[in-house]
User: Fold these one by one.
Assistant:
Number 1:
Amino acid sequence: MLTRPDRATIVTLLAPPTVWALHFLTAYILAAIACAKGWDPGSVRLVIAAATAAALVFIALAARAAHRHTGFTADTPPHDDPTRGARMRQMGAATFLVAALSFVAVIFTSLPAVFIPDCR
Amino acid sequence: MSDDLSRDTLAEAQAARLRKVWATPRGWRYWSAVNNTEVGIWYIVTSFGFFLFAGVLALIVRAQLAVPQNDLVSPEFYNQAFTLHGTMMMFLFAVPIFEAVAILLLPQMLAARDLPFPRLSAFGFWCFLIGGSFVAGSIFFDAAPASGWFMYPSLATNKDLAGIGADIWLLGLSFIEVASIAAAVELIVGVLKCRPPGMRIHLMPLYCWYVLIVAGMILFAFPPLIAGDILFELQRMFDWPFFDPDRGGDPVLWQHLFWIFGHPEVYIIFLPSIALMAMIVPTFSQVPITGYGWIVLAAVGTGFLSFGLWAHHMYTTGLPALSLGFFSAASEAVAIPTGVQIFVFIATMATGRVIFSVPMLFAAGALAVFVFGGLTGVMVALAPFDWQAHDTHFVVAHLHYTLIGGMLLPLIAGLYYFFPFATKRMLSARLGTWAFWLIFTGFNITFLPMHFTGLRGMPRRVFTYPAGHGWDWLNLISTFGAYIMAIGVLVVVVDVVRALRHGPPAPRNPWNAGTLEWTVETTDENWGVRSVPQISSRYPLWDQPGVLDEMDRGQGYLPDAAAGKRETLITGVLDATPEQVQRLPANSFRPLAAAIFIGTCFIAATFEWWWLAAAGGIIGIGVILGWLWTGTARPPEAATMDAGRGLTLPLYASGPRSVGWWAMCITMVGDATAFISLIFGYFFYWTIHAEFPPPQATGPGLVWPAIAAATGLAAWAAVLAARHANRTGRVAMARLALMAGAGLTIASIAAGAAAILTTGLDPVVHVYDATVWVLVIWTALHLAAGVLMQLYCLARSLAGHMTPVHDIDIQNVTLYWHFAGVTLAVTMAVIGLFPLASG
């Protein structure tokens, strides 16, 4: 759905931050259980790294689709014409920004797993 | 000429019919009103009243702290005062005022006649009034909650330490949360489905984006707290040990559930106020907002990221550093979208010619204060700094900077801005300026020194302090500032009261704003808009020159109320294409009666008067059923109607095309969130115990959960079959399926009961038993509601209200059953299968 060129909806808008939320929960829950149950922190960090990579790829794809919706800058903001096309370009632009924020936020979230090696 | 004359006569007749349909009832019947123009005002006045009350409590707190070793009030009263201050400001002012303002503003901003569920708004308001008065009034009986607004166990679970006040907090506020969720449902459906034709999603006012995001956040933030309240109350009333470490519980679970609510809550109250600024700043800059897409980014981004912050209130509970790291990172990240909003406002002001008025004064002050609070927020988001500042007055200072800068000051800006909208009169610019400077300086004098008292180690919530720690002068200054701020608030109150009678009459659109709420008429008309316009701009009043005149002359959509019924236009989510004319329910005492009886149920439960509670609950459910029966899903007298401008629209739509279906879906998302919170509890205990279920646990086994799941899922299938049979015209078959479904559901409930009753699970002994009990009870209650719905559909079918064409009831009930079915399946898998997997 995200890659279809003719769709820019509330669902596509909310997809990137939803991925951030899922990634955040995965990292937190995994670390919490691992620390409580004494699992090997090394493999947990590997799983978080994999989840981070997957989340970033998905968000990047969503951002690419959103960038297409903006019409490849053929038309500059504010995209306020009363047309379906302007609606799609505006939603695309907003989604692109949300995807960028989500991308950064996923990286933020994964940094503790890089710098904190154990459960102290 | 005669054509013009007849057109005028027609328009007059139409206006007269509209006026009659939308008239506000007089005399004692006034209180049966459900129109947003009445309910919105009541809501605002009530929550503002609670704000003043909570403000007085703050002044008492500040007076007590003015000098060391003060004995102005007793420690017991002090605890009640600060607890109730925080509780009321959060639950009875900050969140409700958002809902109140949105209920008042939104329909006019969308040129809708009203929101889709006016009676739900009224019900929410009455719940809020009753529950709020109950909680607030408790302090006059020395029975107010006294354990802090976060109610931490084990202090608050101990009946000797925290008397009935804790129960009042838990049950009173749970009742109000019902109102919050009701309003959230109303507002989401309102924004998505009640926009005027042509107001595509990229043309809707930014306020609507914020309302959408915030209402969505309420759906995910409040249910965990409701789940927590349930566990908490079960411990207090029946001694189930959820938070008692001696029997396997853990107080930290409460902190998780509370702060999953508590942190997003800060943004739930911050974003709507920023939304007001997003309306005020362009108006006084006289240019469209710069960076519409950036504001959408900021609202969506903040809405999501704010959920990743909850544990930053728990840095000192001993969570592993790795876990703290995730929350610290998210806390830093949320500064990005928050900052974007500030920059968008500054950019908008920079591109326009700013007219400095009272609303702009408050808005500018808000930006300054909020930025300062945001900076200290970044400081406390860092775990090592927080370990030092935790539970000191530094945190008090930080949170007041963010809440007053991010919420109160923008709200007062909104008060000055929208006062002419609501009352048709203007507030005084002179008094407003005085009020601003008094509040602004008073606020800074109060809270700036608290950063230093906090850094010098003065703890929060202490009743008094010894002299000579370097806290004395700073506290005296703070108290002095608090009273200056209070005088400022008093000036606002005086101005409002004065202006209601003597304020100069407001001209139409007094600020020359561009959005549709300013089409409001200067005379008292309750129809919202005379007719619904076709929209082609984000600022129609600026860009569509003839639009106001067209609306007023009844040349838009729905210019008439020919059937003598209240009607509003329903449009598509993305492009606002007209889809349906929705019949709205008229004024009724039923919402008030329902709120009184359901309120009785909650309040009686506080005092453990079980018979009265049960009676209140049962009568309340009866009233709600009567309300639904008479007010919803009525087959119309004709399939379609003329909506004006040559457009004919259906009067009835079911399934995903009906607003009721959306409301059900949204409500159930909130419900599912509460359920997930309970499941979270189960697995939380699993993480803290070496073995969970504990080795001595006996139940619930596999057999009874399996029977419960099988019969319950068969009931779900029966509902699906009933919907299909009804739609395909086999009405008798549908009725049979509904009856079979009800029987199967009752069997499922019985099997669930057997699972906990016959397998030796005792909820008082260990938290494992208690958790299984609570999951089964939660599921059983949902199935019981499912039976009620099946029988309701059956009765509707027999009474002829539900037919193969008119099937809203069964469509919505099926949707409910999807959620109930998943709840059942998950519960049974967790309690039946997980013990096998973990054992």
Number 2:
Amino acid sequence: MKRTATALAVVAVTSLVLTSCGRDEAGGGGEEQSKAISDGAATGTIEVWAMGTEGDELQAFSADFEEANPDAEVKVTAIPWDAAHNKIANAIASGETPDVSLIGTTWMGEFAEAGGLMPTPEGLVDEADFFPGAWGSTEVGGTSYGVPWYVETRALYYRKDMAEKSGWSEAPQTWEELHQFATDMKEKGGAEYGLSLQPGQTGSWQTVLPFAWSNGAAVTNEAGTEYTIDSPEMVEALDYYTSYFDEGLSPARMLDPGELESGFADGSYGAFISGPWHTGLVEEAGLSTDEYAVAPLPGKDSGPGTSFVGGGDLAVFSDSDNTDAAWKYVQWLSEPETQQGFYDTVGDLPAVQAAWDTGELAEDPQLQVFGTQLETTEAPPAVPTWEQVAATIDTLVEQASKGATKPEDAVKEMQSKASSIGTGL
Amino acid sequence: MTATATEPRQGRPAKDSRPTKSRHVDPTRRGQAVAAWILALPFCALFLVFTAGPVLASLGLSFTDLRSTDVRNPLGVEFVGLTNYADLVSDPLFRKVTLNTLLYLVLGVPLTMAVALGVAVALNRITRLRAFFRVGYYLPVVTSIVAVSVVWKFLLRDNGGLVNVMLAWVGINGPGYLDSTTTALPTLVVMAVWRNFGSLMVIFLAGLQTIPKEISEAAETDGASAWATFRYITLPMLRPTLLFGAVITSIGYLQFFEEAFVMTKGGPLDSTKSVTFFTYEQFGFGNYAYASAAAYLLFLAIVLLTLFQFRLLREKD
């Protein structure tokens, strides 16, 4: 009796779960094309999710949009970054999504493939207005599923005063020069470590892949259907990367939060690679713009190298009840003036190139370096399994950096793990 | 329950002439039973919907190939039998996290039990300031793990951490506790013991207080040493409490997660990743079926270990 009841419960629950998911037949990779948005003002409520500073500031910032569209109301919900990925994944699974959300660029593949995102409507924005690397992050299997909102990219930070002391009046342009630069900073400039690189662990792929891209390596094939990590170019890049740890030019352990900035300020680290947010942190740590400089990443044989482009995209969900107004809101956020205004409010670098030509951004020499770098960038592949493969790469970079695995073996292992995971497309 | 309660106990002859299988049930008792069920119903409903349902569903899911990208298009989901379980067994990362979890168990359980018992016995003896110490030792249990982790990380820092600074005073060059694959896991265990022994200590203290004072007083009069009293009186009388303690502590260490998640993110080189951590990570990657299978393997391990512990500690009765 008891056993029958349990068995019945299993069957009932399982079938309930399966059928309740089965109601929705629209999902599964968006083949359908979104129709073009209508003319006229937006109406109705637009529910928006955003993370981080964007989430905090967007509500007040959207007042201008509401003024121009009196019948529309924007309702922003702030979500912490930590919880965002799972919250959006669950919302898509249950069909309880908002209308618009900020999406981390590396999540696009997964959410688009799950059928949660609408393809970008024809004529909403002009692709050519955006940085190509940023636009690439919205494309999954050849279809665009959103609009780039803001971008970030990585460049080389270095101590100008220490570089001069070691005989460098300009930033290094090539791999060879970078290596020499780091050695000189250590030997002549008085730095404990010439260049601080991340020895593996979460997110280190963002520093490693630029070296691979600069060397002509590609993580996936053109269509994104197969991982192509194992290549001589990739091995060479990882070999070059790990040489900094082998030779004591980079600290081989993970730095604690805040250690990088204070170590850069007191001269322990001569240089490091990071994004635009570090200008503020470095200056908070006590350095003036005379003491440090930012330069584009060195390339293999000539600069600039290919850097990582990340940031956030804006996407409209398939389950949105107000898609027309939602896309109009996205369109408004993509206008150069809106992007400049948002930079003034939050400090996010605009994804629209025209927004860099005038105003505060055009006058800040350090930010202009990031603007220059943004023209030579690549985004990680927008495939559903990228997060998992990235975690694998992080672990293997760590092994190679610690000397536990040879770079060529680490790259082989990355390939075999990535192949068994598959791209999911 | 109510039907058997009115029956005479088995093995004893019925003394009165009442038939042993009485159909008569006291009406007030039936009323109480109905009331009890009505009161219990909300819990039962919530339990079925939010606990039993998902638990059973995840068992079902563990036999499919469901990924996050299939959720809206479940027609593509296939029944794959035991494939996920077979994949887990041959997955080097899963083997590593299983080994790590066993290490957590083997290091953590005896240490936590010993510290909790030692402190409980000491607290049972002192009469002054008992409440103060009891609160003091219990405090880490209720402190936020994130706050605790930040402080510990600061203390354990390689460069300028208080622990290494103090070791340097006596001429010892301390390691980067959380940066090395050999020291990270034991360091987390030490922290977990410090954080968790308090709740076990409270249970042991309660157990100790059920032991009648007369017995140990009699032993003392007979000239037994403190150790002998502890060994031959306290320990045997505490056996049920110890069993309970061992079971819940083991279950806790088999589900080791928070400390590793906050302090090391499973690193360096996956050396502190536990099975629960692995499951969490796989859910994050969208591998729902694979993660469910891992969760069920852990569940199975917990059931087996608990049964084993009950047998081991009961047999000597």
